[in-house]
Amino acid sequence: MSGLVALAIAVGVVAMLSIGVGSRFIPPGSVLSALFSPGGGFYDNVIWELRVPRTVAGLVIGAALGLSGAVMQGLTRNPIADPGILGVHAGAAFGVVVAIYVFGLLDFRAYVGFAFAGAALVSAAVWLVGSRGRDGATPVKLALAGAAISAFIGSATSLVLYADSTAFDEFRFWSVGSLAGAKADLLLAAAPFLAGGALLAFGVIRGLNALSMGADVARSLGQRVSLVRGAAALAVVLLSGTAVAAVGPIGFVGLTVPHVARALAGPDHRRVLPYSALLGPLVLLGADIVGRVVAIPSEVQVGAITAAVGAPVFIWFVRRRAVREL
Amino acid sequence: MTASLHSGAADPAPDRALNRALGRAVRGPGFSARLAPRALLVASAALAVLLALAVASICFGDYPLRFDQVVDAIFGGSGGQSYIVQRFRLPRAVGGALAGALLGLSGAVFQTLARNVLASPDVLGVETGAALVTVVLMTLGLTGTAALTGGAFAGAAVATAAVYLLAYRRGINGMRLILVGIGVNACVTGGTSYVLMLAEVHTAERAHNWTLGGFNGLGWEQVAVLATGLAVTLPLATGLAARLRTLSLGDGVARALGLPLERSRLLLIGAGVLAAAASVAVAGPVAFIALVAPQIARRLIGRPDGGLVTSAIFGALLAVAADFAGRQLAGDAEIPVGIVTALAGGPWLVYLLMKRGSRSTNG
User: Fold this and answer.
1) Where are chain B's structural domains?
2) Do B187 and A311 touch (CB under 8 A)?
3) Among the residues of chain A, which ranges form H helices?
4) For residue B285, what is the nearest residue in chain A, using CA coordinates?
5) Quick check: A307 and B123 CB within 8 A?
6) Lowest mean pLDDT among A2-16, A26-40, A61-75, B267-281
7) Residue B326's CB: how many other CB atoms inside 10 A?
8) Which of A306, A278, A276, A302 is closest to A67 using CA atoms?
9) B218, B271, B329, B335: which has the fewest Cβ within 10 Å?
10) Residues of chain B found within 8 Å of residue A84, distances taken between Cβ atoms
């Protein structure tokens, strides 16, 4: 419990930093006064119009990415599972592009459904392809299926972008993954989906714990395995589909966070999930702050930062342990 | 799992069938050669189809030409028709075939080397590396052919070297190589997206279109670069083919047979990277050809390694066919060849994964 409290305090500190740090640095005193007694302060506008929505987005999306990664790794029993690696991002991106190009939908509320549909279809396809055979869904087979189907869907996305330069111009900003465009109304629209996904994720904790001993053991412990798997998959699709639709594909947070959570909290999902939900915002906001200061006065989008830092971590996993287990 | 890791080169074919596929030895005073009727038959049939496709792709277009007009235009002739053929359609067909042949050759080398049918230059970072450097150069305004070709070549080589070195750990494991490739690709693609976002919109669009691969800009200059690439890498790779076959038996056996292991492997990787990088640098990334061509060759010949030359011929065949399809399918517009190959090759890869998945038994 003390670990969770410490993490929560750390998240609070990073959130304060995220409000204060940027192309214009705001001293902590002004941040606090603007937050708790708004009205009249010099920085009120910047803080409430830009920094607070961005920080809230970092908190919410970070939690969603951390949770979805933890559920995905528990569901697939796969240390290198990540919504990006397993094709969820590519599927959601394709859904968004179809919504923009074919149906002309430019509003988040309109295209989030397409993002879900794409994410769900591709996840189902990856699982179907990756779990064939007597040894079931091994990490390698899932990763390969994810890469193959991502490449296929990605080229379909490219075809649409090739045909329509307006869609391409929209897409290239979205596809980096950035918190900078997050506005209050977007977050309000995303909130119900994220809340639903989080509730589902915490609802299947017992099922995930049972599944970690294998489907047969889970069944004999009285779990309805296909129900648990379905609910967990739905949670992943809701959480990472919404995150991708809202801020673009941000890779590797869902991959690394659950590993840190397990290192801190052990393998029990009752502890892994809350830890992941707190570590996710910590990592995402941290990366976002780094992105804001490395290239002052301009900034580097958080998706580029997580890709640059996360890919080496992935490779390290592959070298160190993943392959030994395969 | 180990069984399926290595299933690429180790189909348990009955000895007699294998011997028939490998052909029979012909010995005379002072020479010996192997005569493989089936491989020769497959290769010449593929060459004939390739030729027919190339001619068809020269005939069809915004301005259709009859066969005899094309022949006239190629062998001398003057005026509008021969201008169209000699200036645009012929270099496009020849260049596309050469680019595909380089990819097929490279794929055959890597798949045999890593003993894994999924190891292709696409997976090892050749395409994403070349794409990143090209996009950066275009954004900086360096759009000269020499700069772009050289840059793409360097990007491809560096990315592949990085994947290989990062995956090296007391030898190379095919699966580790592929997984590291997925990681490096993800990272490099992130960088490409970032640069595309920074660029001015028209530059970004041009750069993005380059990353889709395309033969429409090919002229004789580019054909010369591709031909040089093939002239260097094909003899190099076929000269090392015997070593490649020994390597495909596994490191232990190869060492026991007295093969200089690391040197042979390094030379072969060099040839494979060189071939793929030359193709990507000139024609842009054309996905999946390197993956698919050697496997078609392998299946048709019925021989575990498929043969380097046959793989190259099938690579050329696929490239010309995809380019032709991309021009015909969309009416007035043109679908970039890389998208055609990806849309057609993706399901093939999925099929392959499903087949492997159901075959592997021990977990």
Assistant:
1) 36-357
2) yes
3) 2-20, 28-36, 44-45, 52-76, 88-101, 108-130, 139-163, 165-174, 184-203, 205-211, 215-220, 225-247, 253-265, 269-293, 302-317, 323-325
4) A155
5) no
6) A26-40
7) 23
8) A276
9) B329
10) 186
Q: How far apart are CA B9 and CA B116, in angstroms?
A: 7
Q: How far is B73 from chain A (nearest CA, A)?
A: 33
What is the maximum alpha-carbon separation in chain A? 67
Spatial contact of B310 and B45, defined as CB atoms under 8 Å apart:
no
- Which pLDDT belongs to residue B7? 40
Nearest CA distance, A155 vs chain B (angstrom):
6
Global ipTM: 0.78
* Residue pLDDT, tens place only, B100-156: 999 999 999 988 887 777 778 888 888 889 889 989 998 998 878 788 888 988 998
CB atoms within 10 A of CB B345: 25
Closest chain B residue by Cα to residue A317? B180
Backbone angles phi, psi at B34, to 5 degrees: -110, 130
Q: How far A177 CA sits from the closest chain B CA (Å)?
A: 9
Closest residue in A to B166 (Cα–Cα): A315
| β partners of residue B34 | B25
Helix-helix angle B337-359:B308-329, to 10 degrees: 130
CATH 1.10.3470.10 fits A2-325, yes or no: yes
**B95-127 b/e (C-beta count within 10 Å ≥ 16 → b):** bbbbbbbbbbbbbbbbbbbbbbbbbbbbbbbbb
Return the pLDDT at B13. Answer: 46
Domain B36-357: homologous superfamily in CATH: ABC transporter involved in vitamin B12 uptake, BtuC (1.10.3470.10)
Query: Are B184 and A315 an interchain contact pair (Cβ–Cβ within 8 Å)?
Result: yes
Separation of alpha carbons A218 and A206, rounded Å: 10
Shortest CA gap A233–chain B (Å): 21
Selected for mutation to probe chain B from A140, A155, A166, A176 (highest B CB count within 10 Å) is A155
> Do A141 and B357 lie within an 8 Å CB cutoff?
yes
pLDDT at B10: 44
Higher pLDDT pick, B174 / B125 = B125
Spatial separation of the C-alpha atoms in residues B299 and B310, rounded to whole Å: 11
| Band (B257; pLDDT cuts 50, 70, 90) | confident
- For residue A87, report the phi and psi dihedrals to the nearest 5 degrees: 90, 0
Q: What is the pLDDT of residues B317-326, one digit of tens each?
A: 999 999 999 8
Q: Which residue has the tokens 């150069």?
A: B137
Residue pair B264/B93 in contact (Cβ under 8 Å)? The answer is: no
CA–CA separation, B241 vs B218, rounded Å?
Answer: 31
pLDDT digits (tens, 9 = 90+) for A84-133: 878 888 898 899 888 888 887 777 777 788 888 898 899 888 888 887 76
Q: Which residue has the higher pLDDT, B109 or B359?
A: B109
Instruction: Quickly list DSSP for A124-165.
Output: HHHHHHHT-STT---HHHHHHHHHHHHHHHHHHHHHHHHH-H
Cα→Cα distances A294→A15, A218, A308, B66, Å: 18, 48, 13, 61
What is the token pair recorded at A315? Answer: 């490779």
- Domain ranges within chain A, ordered by starting residue: 2-325
